[in-house]
Prior knowledge:
Bound molecules: iron/sulfur cluster
Number of strands: 0
CATH superfamily of the largest domain: Helix-hairpin-Helix base-excision DNA repair enzymes (C-terminal)
Strand content: under 5%
Distance between the termini: 42 Å
Number of helices: 8
Amino acid sequence: MTSLAKADIREIEKIVFSTGFYKNKAKNIKQLAIIVSEQFNGKIPNDFDTLLKLPGIGRKTANVIMDCAFKTSIGFVVDTHVKRLSNRLGWTTSQNPVKIEKDLMSVIPREYWKDLSLYLIYHGRKFCMARKPDCDGCFLNKLCPSAMKTTKIK
Ligand code: SF4
């Protein structure tokens, strides 16, 4: 963490270039590394609310860190795939990630949050794409309320 905090920002930009918004991401990564080095002894804090105060960390990333690094599900990871699929599957009617997260947390037992979020992400990449979902090939098409509307889904 210390070497990242001291790194030349242009070197960090080169590493994250392909992810998009690379300048902003590099800036946040360097700032985060400085704070974690100086205030947390070089260790990523194991606390959701503290994570949210770090540069570049929102609820989605904080939930991923808590799930993957600390094996604790505090909330439900809502990315663009989870947002789209949870609407298509009828689990929420909201477009707001925070509201979607609350809706999912209220109907899905905590022990499934981490895995189900990943399943939705993979399913969104393979079958339930944003522009042209493959409802014919999707094994959920008999259960999904959006299956018959494939030509209308934007
Ligand atoms: S049936 Fe279609 S809209 Fe429903 S989850 Fe499958 S791919 Fe997505």
